[in-house]
Amino acid sequence: MRDRSVPVRGVLAAREMAMGPAATLTRLRHWHLKKDDDGIAWLILDRAGENANTLSEEVMRELDTMLAEIAGLGVKGLVLRSAKTGGFAAGADIRDFRGVADVAEIEARMRGAHDIVDRLAALRIPTVAVVHGHCLGGGLELALACRHRIAVDGASFGFPEVLLGLHPGLGGTFRLPTLIDPIEAMTMMLTGRSVHAAKARRLGLVDAVVEERHVAHAVGAAISGGLKRAGRGWMSPAFALGAARRLAGKRMRAEAEKQAPAEHYPAPYRLISLWEEHGSDKKAMQPAEIRSFAELLAGKTAQNLIRVFFLREGLKALGKGDSRIDHVHVIGAGTMGGDIAAWCAARGLTVTLADLDRKALGKAIGRASSFYDKRLHSGIARRDALDRLMPDLGGDGAARADIVIEAIAEDAEIKKKVFASLATVMKPDAILATNTSSIPLETLREGLALPDRLVGVHFFNPVTRMELVEIVAHDQASPETLARARAFCGRIDRLPAPVRSSPGFLVNRALTPYLSEAFVMLDEGMRKETIDQAARDFGMPMGPIELADQVGLDIGLHVAEMLKRSLADPLPDIPDWLRQKVAKGELGRKTGKGLYAYDKDGKPVKAEAPAPDADLADRLVMPMLNTCVRLLREGVVADADTLDGAMIFATGFAPFRGGPIHYARERGIEEVVAALSRLEAVHGARFRPDEGWRDLAKPGPALA
Questions:
Q1: For residue 254, what pLDDT is reported?
Q2: Burial degree of 284 (CB within 10 A; 0-12, 13-18, 19+)
Q3: pLDDT tens, 344-397?
Q4: What is the pLDDT of residue 14?
């Protein structure tokens, strides 16, 4: 059955992609070579056994073989194209470099790959890369080696290597800045953000943007010389001077430091240095790029970020399958419910959003519209998403929905009343999902007529940015319900993390000791800015005080009170000032005031404060690590990799450290236990090392 979220024209276009003649001249495992009646060679990449093209070493060796054959064919031109409907290529296959830490070996392999790409660039015939869908990393570097690039409408281009602790390593550092404005080129490489077809055309990255039905005509124009290459922009010649590059580089470093401190993320700064030193000399830049890339890849930051990539892939794999969900009904148009509804509609699902408050519904639709304006790249896409998102004052959508997501107040009795009313109207195969952040599902299922169809689907705030969703199981949930809930996450491009029902589940249970310790520090008279700086120095994207405001002090208070009641975990007492702030409505960022005050742009107003002591981060992080080990021991989460992925993608736990359990192993289990014991001696039983550390010290399989 066809995916109803994909327009008919998209399905037809995928079937009718211009691929040259039907007959194949030479077929290797991953590449197909054709020659049409006009004397044009069509080289088609279709990596065997994979859903997307990546540039493995085998793919590159076959490309070398094909280029040698093309050189002897006497063709008028060459077209490079992907047979995958999803896109051109997703970059290099980092599985080839998994665990490789020898710089000389990496350099040798990269030099070989450069030789192949240089061979493509040196062809004397016109070469054209036809790009649809994604064109990323090494795939974009391959396209840059062609004389022309034609984008099919909807294509996107980017260099995400910085997210893996790297910079482009297959010629991107010198080919992109000589093709488009160098500042734009450096911005693409330093941020990892993709540009879509229209902007790529404005930048000069592509020479034309066409509909699929016009590809053959555009190829003919490119080969015949009728397609003009785009210019670079008026400011480009200035950066032939080293002084100009160094001045621009200084500003780039300042911007990079705001997002990726050099101490933890060296790649952006290495890239800036490369450009400053060799930006006007391709011959010097190429070996310098290879050397820098090899050194970064062999380093701990890149190896841990590659581990994070595989953690993501592992969680993503849990979301495979057919959810059989086309219609989502969300109950509760507050920030969480409204944003869940907006996200699902943006991902192609029909959504009804129910609330008894018309104003709440209006605000939710307004937030959705603003989000679509920022994140959807065409007027048609924005219109279609809003058409799919329907306010539902009467709650009629519950009877038609394939999944009903409850996102109301964190009150078990209110939730149970809502569930009871839903049980009489929901379709027999519909899933009942709760977005509860902490209430055990055993409590919520009491008296419920359909416990087998109840599952926790716990999103994190902000929904549109946080990738992780906890899929919370209980012993009466059917395996089919859990599998469909995980597949629903995959359907909406979210990462499902299976956890067992328990107070606070995984993420909130692990996060609460971290936040609670920060509150104890406040009570001791420590400045909030100092506490937050200690966490950022460790590598967290924001400190615990700012994070508490981001989550909402009311939510944090509720979770802390519930965990204190329900668990034997030795949490510190909840401070009275926290209850007072919640009572006054000072709930954090969402109300403009919490532990920080917030400006008109929603940013915390911070004052100068003393720098943190070197060991302050341990006092914050160690309770979190200890709880993570306790969660593994109790079986709330099945394995350390799922836990590490969940904490990275739900809380932002320092990605370059590879996750809390991986960090503990890298630091040394004995050293972590000793640090906890030292803190216990000073601050009490809440730092007592959990007995699960003994099991963790035993060797186990590593993900990367």
A1: 95
A2: middle
A3: 999 999 999 999 999 999 999 999 999 999 998 788 999 999 999 999 999 999
A4: 43
1 band by pLDDT with thresholds 50, 70 and 90: very low
Helix (H, G, I), strand (E, B) or coil at 14: helix
Residues 6+ apart with CB under 8 A from 424: none
Closest CA to 40 of 67, 70, 66: 70
Tell me the residue range of the domain where 445 lies.
322-500
Q: Are 330 and 354 in contact (CB under 8 A)?
A: yes
Q: Are 345 and 388 in contact (CB under 8 A)?
A: yes
568-575: long-range contacts at Cβ-Cβ below 8 A with a sequence spacing of 24 or more? 569/509, 569/513, 569/627, 569/630, 570/684, 570/685, 570/686, 570/688, 571/512, 571/513, 571/516, 571/686, 572/516, 572/517, 572/519, 572/520, 572/686, 574/516, 574/519, 575/519, 575/522, 575/523
- Structure confidence at residue 377 (pLDDT): 74
* Closest C-alpha to 34, from 21, 46, 45, 16: 21
Local structure of 503: helix, strand or coil: coil
Give the C-alpha separation, 155 to 611, whole Å: 46
CA angle 218, 223, 225 (to 5 degrees): 95
- What's the rounded Cα separation, in Å, for the pair 617 and 548? 17
| 161 among known catalytic residues | yes
* Token couple for 620: 């914050």
Give the separation between CA 686 and CA 572, rounded to whole angstroms.
7
Token pair recorded at residue 625: 């690590």
Per-residue pLDDT tens for 534-549? 999 999 999 999 999 9
CA distances from 101 to 109, 238, 302 (A): 13, 39, 10
* Number of domains making up the chain: 3
141 is known as an active-site residue: yes
Lookup result for tokens 């208070």:
557
Considering the domain architecture, whether residues 140 and 234 belong to the same structural domain is answered as: yes
DSSP per position, 575-615: PHHHHHHHHTT--BGGGTBSSSBB-TTS-B-----PPPPTT
CATH classification of the domain holding 614: 1.10.1040.50
One DSSP character per residue, 322-363 reads -----EEEEE--SHHHHHHHHHHHHTT-EEEEE-S-HHHHHH
Summarised one tens digit per residue, pLDDT across range 188-217 is: 999 999 999 999 999 999 999 999 999 999
Contact assessment for residue 212 and residue 132, using Cβ atoms and an 8 Å cutoff = yes
Check residue 259 and give its pLDDT. 86
Residues 369 and 468 in one domain: yes
**Coil, strand or helix at 64:** helix
Q: What is the mean pLDDT of the chain?
A: 93
CATH of the domain at 407: 3.40.50.720
Is there a contact between 268 and 137 (Cβ–Cβ < 8 Å)? no
Catalytic residue among 58, 105, 107, 141: 141
* Beta strand residue intervals within 355-482, DSSP E: 389-392, 403-406, 431-434, 454-458, 468-473
Give pLDDT tens digits for 457-488: 999 988 999 999 999 999 999 999 999 999 99
Question: In the listed set 435, 470, 500, which residue is the last one of a domain according to the structure?
Answer: 500
Residue at 629 is within a domain: yes
Predicted confidence at residue 232, as pLDDT, reads: 61
User: What letter represents residue 535's amino acid?
Assistant: A
- Name the active-site residue from 62, 161, 406, 546: 161
